Amino acid sequence: GLQRFCIEHSIKLSKIGHIFLSRVCSETTGGLAGLLLTLAGIGDKGMSVDIYGPPGLKCLIDAMRTFVPNKALLHTQIIGPTSTSNGGAIFDSEILQEPATSTSNGALTFDSEFFFKEPHAIFFNEVMKISALLLRPSSYPPSNSSFPNPLASHSQNLDGAKLMPGDISVIYVVELHEIIGKFDPKKAMELGLERGPKFRDLQRGQSVQSDKNITVYPKDVMGPSVAGPIVVLVDCPTLSHLQQLVSLQSLNSYLDGGKIVSCVIHLSPSSVTLTAEYQTWMRRFAGAQHIMSGHEKKNTEIPILTTATKMAARLNYLCPNFFPSCGFLARPDIYNGEQHIIASNMVSDPSLSKSVAAENLLKFHLRPRSLFGLDNSKVPKLLSHAKVIDDLRLEIPEIAESAIEVSNLWNKSESNLPSCLENITREEMEIVFLGTGSSQPSKHRNVSSILINLFSKGSLLIDCGEGTLGQLRRRFGVMGANDIVRGLKCIWISHMHADHHTGLASILALRCQLLKGTSQEKTFVIAPTQLKNFLDAHQCAEDLNMQFIYCGRTLDVEWEGFESYHKEPESLGELTEDFKIQQKLKKMLGEVGLEALISFPVIHCRDAFGLVLKAVERHNTDGKTIPGWKLVYSGDTRPCQKLKDESKEATVLIHEATFEDKMVDAAISKNHSTTKNAIETGEGAYRVILTHFSQRYPKIPVFEETHMRERKTCIAFDNMSVNIADLPVLPKILPQLKLLFPKEVEDEDEVEVEEFHDV
Q1: Paired strand residues for 715
Q2: Exposed, middle or buried: residue 350 (CB in 10 Å: 0-12, 13-18, 19+)?
Q3: In terms of CB atoms within 10 Å, which end of the chain has fewer, N or C?
Q4: CB 67 within 8 A of CB 36
Q5: What pLDDT sits at residue 141?
Q6: Which residues contact 531 (CB under 8 A, 6 or more apart)?
Q7: How far apart are CA 635 and CA 609, in angstroms?
Q8: Among 113, 118, 150, 144, which Cα is nearest to 131's?
Q9: Confidence of residue 101 (pLDDT cuts 50, 70, 90)
Q10: If residue 612 lies in a helix (H) or strand (E), which one and from where to where?
């Protein structure tokens, strides 16, 4: 999560005025929506931001406007060709493309390939010039997308495969202006000049006439200029792109002793950078510092989010049953074995001695000259799990005894179990809270996302805020997260506020990538209709392979209509497209052991919904029928009767508790619930789990002890994993959790942009 990282390390987002994307895909734009929302909330008028990127960018940004407010002043600057009716599209800002030839149907051809042949300046100010060069693969894999492609007519290989916008990457060349040499007044006076305007003219590069009737040129009185440092940023995502990269003639002026490049940043994966061809190309940047920023290497000893890692380790020490992840990735997960296979033709060239692995907060200083070069002074230091636990024991000496008390809770029998939990196994269902904060990410809590893990039958996601993929990897490890994503059957989104859905595209794109080459079934995305526009725009850039269903099609009345429709024999051959999709959804639910998935309206914003999941009945060894469990999720809402009705006899109710009880007015004004509201709504449920806390409560929310007397309620934390078999124990750990986290309230300036993420 970009925002969480910036908050963790006090990086001021208010300084961002320009964003340069090397590709248009979930990998490069995953944190963009949240960033734009944050920038919109800075100051009285928000901030103006220029976003540069290859074709497909404008389509994506326009789609984001459905949930990014107008206060976010966005200007998209498209690099390269695009499909328009007049041979050149005009965007929010200046055109960064030369008119190309337009065909009769309005599509562009590649008659003009200026951005593929030469770097062209796209940004210029008093400090630097930034040029861009487009890179495309030498062959294009077939696309599964049925959505409009801005480049569909631009290029096509012999197999008829299309070039997707996400297939194009941008090489950026950053050139700082040269430093003019020092003016030598003594030389000027020797040539017959006196102090005055002519001195100034010479320093401005103009020749002058001296009193000795000599033409004095700037080179006569100026010291040698110092060329500005140059940085090249290369994103070569595949071996097919590499074939184009090594054959580019347009970069020759920066290679083999031409213009001296100070630093080359490689965003390319190691499957590309470790090949002999790529390393031969790297050596042509004579003397340059290479920074390898491929994405396979994972932070282990130095986690990306230090505060969250420490919190996870402390929770894991206290109660590993509910907090199985200690926050540190296991060593076998340093590399994803499925994506990082080092083939025999890959080498690591020892001659590339000026090559380092990128680290978070690593800097390369360009100016002043005295600081030139690498600077790792701000790189986060080594963090060990053992050190975190030692510090915890020193801080809270009684924590060791509390951990023993918690483990003993599983040795006690539970009376008054609901019938659905009778003889239930640990392979039935697990609830994994991936994000438990509201509005925007913080150091301690990510935004809303809940995994319903059905183990061998697959999984579902309930909401999918920014950073959900990263949270999955923290909980399950890289390969474990991949297994979860492969088995993902459905993603249900409660409403259109950005803190509930901006992680969606990353999850869908990864699943599509992991299942490439297989007969993969589409992932169901059940969400408000406005989200379809965004997902359709994203599918112009990369395949997401999803089947969209409007939440309203899963209301109980809609399911009743569907069942009635199927009871009429003559209707079977006349299914509408909506009913066919609903039929597929019903089939999928049966395959994962669910009897029903029902959405219902709640009180928050337009098209806001809650959710009911019902499991199918089970039979014990005696043939006795055991009812299936029932899970209810509130989404974001004020207290409402429909939610209370659905919560009756629920096995577990997951309810938002954004505000403490003293902030009733804030809860009412923003259509949220207080802790008391949530607990009262869940009176008829067996267990109530509170989540979606305001980020003003950084570690543990404020709640009244009187609300907890029935011992049925607990508080969710990020990566908390609640197996349905452990529900009887769940509320009993609350006193020990409070021991870990004394009450704290975040400063108001930490949540000053909350309204732009959740309104």
Answers
A1: 690
A2: exposed
A3: C
A4: no
A5: 52
A6: 66, 493, 496, 501, 504, 525, 548
A7: 6
A8: 118
A9: very low
A10: strand 609-615
Residue 753 lies in a domain: yes
Structural domain that includes position 569: 418-757
Give the pLDDT confidence score for residue 211 in this predicted structure: 82
- How does DSSP assign 388-453, residue by residue? HHHHHHHH-TTHHHHHHHHHHGGGS--SS--GGGTT--TTS-EEEEEE-BSSS--SS--BSEEEEE
**Number of domains observed in the structure of the chain:** 2
- With contact defined as beta carbons under 8 Å apart, do 501 and 465 qualify? yes
Does 159 have pLDDT greater than 70? no
What element of type H or E holds 475?
Answer: helix 468-486
Task: Tell me which of 176, 205, 221 is where a domain ends.
Answer: 221
Task: Give the rounded percent of residues in the chain with a pLDDT score beyond 90.
Answer: 50
Looking at residue 708, what is its pLDDT? 64
Question: Residue 461's pLDDT band (boundaries 50, 70, 90)?
Answer: very high
Q: What is the pTM of this model?
A: 0.85
Q: Which residues contact 503 (CB under 8 A, 6 or more apart)?
A: 30, 449, 464, 465, 466, 467, 468, 469
CB atoms within 10 A of CB 5: 18
Residue whose structure tokens are 């629920």: 650
Q: What angle do CA 474, 615, 535 make, to 5 degrees?
A: 55
Residues 442-455, mean pLDDT to the nearest whole number: 95
> Does some domain include residue 97?
no
Check pLDDT > 60 for residue 307: yes
The structure tokens listed for 648 are: 């009756």
pLDDT band at 183 (very low <50, low <70, confident <90, very high): confident
Mean pLDDT of 510-531: 93
Q: Encoding tokens for residue 371?
A: 């600081």
Burial class from Cβ neighbours inside 10 Å (0-12, 13-18, 19+) for residue 750 reads middle
- The tokens for 178 are 């040269």
77 part of a folded domain: no
Would strands 373-375 and 430-435 be described as parallel, antiparallel, or unpaired?
unpaired
Q: How far is Cα 132 from Cα 121, in angstroms, rounded to an integer?
A: 6
Mean pLDDT of the region 496-501: 93
Q: Using CB atoms within 10 A of its CB, is residue 583 exposed (0-12), middle (13-18) or buried (19+)?
A: middle
* DSSP assigned state of 46: -
Q: How many CB atoms lie within 10 A of CB 339?
A: 16
Distance separating alpha carbons of residues 468 and 479, to the nearest angstrom: 15
The per-residue pLDDT for 138 is 85
Furthest CA-CA distance within the chain = 117
3 state DSSP class of 482: helix
Q: What is the CATH number of the domain that holds 460?
A: 3.60.15.10
Show which of 197, 221, 245 is a domain's final residue: 221
- Return the closest-CA partner of residue 18 out of 81, 75, 102, 78: 75
Q: Which of 69-78, 261-270, 341-350 has the lowest mean pLDDT?
A: 341-350
The reported pLDDT for the residue numbered 574 is: 52
Mean pLDDT of 627-636: 97
Task: Indicate if the pLDDT at residue 96 is higher than 60.
Answer: no
Q: Please give the pLDDT value at position 59.
A: 82
Sign of the Cα pseudo-torsion (433, 438, 440, 442, in order):
negative
Average pLDDT, integer, range 649-677: 94
Record the tokens describing residue 228, joined without a space.
């500005």
Q: Coil, helix or strand for 284?
A: coil
Model pLDDT, residue 692: 94
| DSSP single-letter state for residue 374 | E
Residue 484 lies in a domain: yes
